[in-house]
Amino acid sequence: MSKLLDANIGLIYGTDTNNTEQVGERISHELEGHGCSVTMLNVIETSVEVLNSFDFLIMGIPTWDFGGIQEDWEDFEVELLSAELGDKQVALFGLGDQFGYGDYFVDAMGWLYKHVTSIGAKVIGHWPTEGYEFEASLAANSEKSHFVGLAIDEDQQFDLTDGRIAKWVKQLMLEYTAV
Ligand SMILES: Cc1cc2nc3c(=O)[nH]c(=O)nc-3n(C[C@H](O)[C@H](O)[C@H](O)COP(=O)(O)O)c2cc1C
Fold this sequence. Notes:
Blueprint: E1 9-13, H1 19-33, E2 38-42, H2 48-53, E3 56-64, E4 68-69, H3 71-75, H4 77-81, E5 89-95, H5 107-118, E6 122-124, E7 127-128, E8 146-147, E9 150-152, H6 161-175
Parallel strand pairs: 1-2, 1-3, 3-5, 5-6, 5-9
Antiparallel strand pairs: 3-4, 7-8
């Protein structure tokens, strides 16, 4: 049985036009279908104390304006860097548009990855780049074989989102280890 079932899971997201919130709801629903309990919070209504209170964090961020960070996450940067994530596992998901912004696809997820790993978090849920078409992404590894988290494209590949979420959630259930 997955240890995620016993974990206090927080899903924190930022959004400009609600796509990331809706994808967050679908991820939460999928986890709940596996028996997990999830608290979902917009980054504007959270605090570092709240982040610290969760066993496992899932963070969602869209990319805006040629590789830009969603503004509520950007406003939360200093607080995020003061979070106690050294003993925690974190999973990331990022929204973007691979055809419209193929040189910056889901870049902001790479920004989140850099920040949470700089304060010691272990990121699980890396995701293959197969099935996406993009030129460059700060959220991809140097071989361009994997993203640092789940990449979702509601603009160009909305029909693939449910399948990707279902597969990724199963992956998290397997990868998460209680500490
Ligand atoms: C003006 C504009 C700029 C965008 N810039 C990027 C970008 O640089 N990289 C990317 O992957 N997606 C980009 N997108 C796509 C958004 O990230 C995508 O629509 C996402 O689903 C929005 O999420 P939200 O509704 O949660 O804010 C852009 C979209 C618009 C309209």
